[in-house]
Amino acid sequence: MGKKAIQFGGGNIGRGFVAEFLHTAGYEVVFVDVMENVIDALQQNKSYEVTEVSEKGETTKTVSNYRAINSKTNESDVIEEIATADVVTCAVGPRVLKFIAPLIAKGIDARTVSKPVAVIACENAIGATDTLHGFIKDSTDPERVKTLYSRAQFANSAIDRIVPNQPPDAGLNVRIEKFYEWVVEQTPFGDVGHPDIPAIHWVDHLEPYIERKLYTVNTGHATTAYYGYQAGKKTIAEALADKNIRDTVHRVLEETASLIIAKHEISERAQKDYVDVI
After folding, report:
1. CATH code, domain carrying 81
2. Domain end (from 204, 231, 263)
3. Same structural domain for residues 241 and 198?
4. How far apart (Å, rounded) are the C-alpha atoms in residues 158 and 148?
5. Catalytic residue among 4, 106, 213, 233
């Protein structure tokens, strides 16, 4: 039997980021969503394209080997899929976690296979898997919570990938920036070992990577936007084309780099390479 991953959320991040890398890792992906138009489109199309965009050009990949289930109308099917899955991921937005948790809890509770399922929330929030984990425990019978970790393991993640505005006729296809970072805790998996997903950078502690993103990517964008607005620029790209603004952004990132290097023992070369890539 092949590897199977359940992906809650069939939006641009779900299709263009998480599912792309799950597919590349050899998983059959089962999308779960409540949006009928998304589910219908996935069911009616055997594949879609993900186009990675960078300064060096574009690369298009095809994602296939997936199925899609509407959890609003086919809850029992979702439970059955989770009961035999290797991985459960989600990209639904932090506020939606409490709504998908009861269904995930039922699927986990129905598991009889010996290896626990890996649960990884891929949200733009710190500790999103911990949040989902809490909702799942709240939706599980207290007696079954005692043995929950024999059926599921929960690992926080930090994600970074920009999805620009999509063409109006894109359909399922997704245009996405080539640069990405998907960092996941490996310690929760213990002796069982983490799932085999090459795109993930497995680490013991997430904090250095979360702070590096905040004080590099987010700080860089915020600085560019602030000085760009002051100079009457309309877009980030237009602002960065201005040498004075670009130089200011670089000085800011040099300052934040000194903090990251000193606090988290990330090497100066590694931080410089990170800045150059983003």
Report:
1. 3.40.50.720
2. 204
3. no
4. 24
5. 213
Domain holding 239, by residue range, is 208-276
Q: How far apart are the C-alpha atoms of 65 and 23, rounded to whole Å?
A: 7
Same domain, 125 and 189: yes
Nearest alpha-carbon partner for 82 in 148, 169, 130, 152: 152
Tokens encoding 38: 């998304």
Same domain? For 241 and 255 the reply is yes
The residue-averaged pLDDT of 246-268 equals 92
Q: How confident is the model at residue 272 (pLDDT cuts 50, 70, 90)?
A: confident
* Rounded Cα gap, residues 215 and 227, in angstroms: 17
Looking up residue 224, the CATH number of its domain turns out to be 1.10.1040.10
DSSP bridge pairs for 60: 51
CA-CA-CA-CA torsion sign (206, 208, 211, 213):
negative
Percent of the chain with pLDDT over 70: 100
Report whether pLDDT(194) > 90.
yes
**What distance in Å separates the CA atoms of residue 184 and residue 201, rounded to the nearest whole number?**
6
Which pLDDT tens digit goes with each residue over 32-47? 999 999 999 999 999 9
Domain count, the chain: 2
What share of the chain in percent tops pLDDT 90? 85
pLDDT exceeds 90 at position 104: yes
Same domain assignment for residues 181 and 261: no
- For helices 268-277 and 243-264, angle between their N-to-C axes, nearest 10 degrees: 140
Determine whether 56 is an active site residue: no
User: pTM (2 decimals)?
Assistant: 0.90
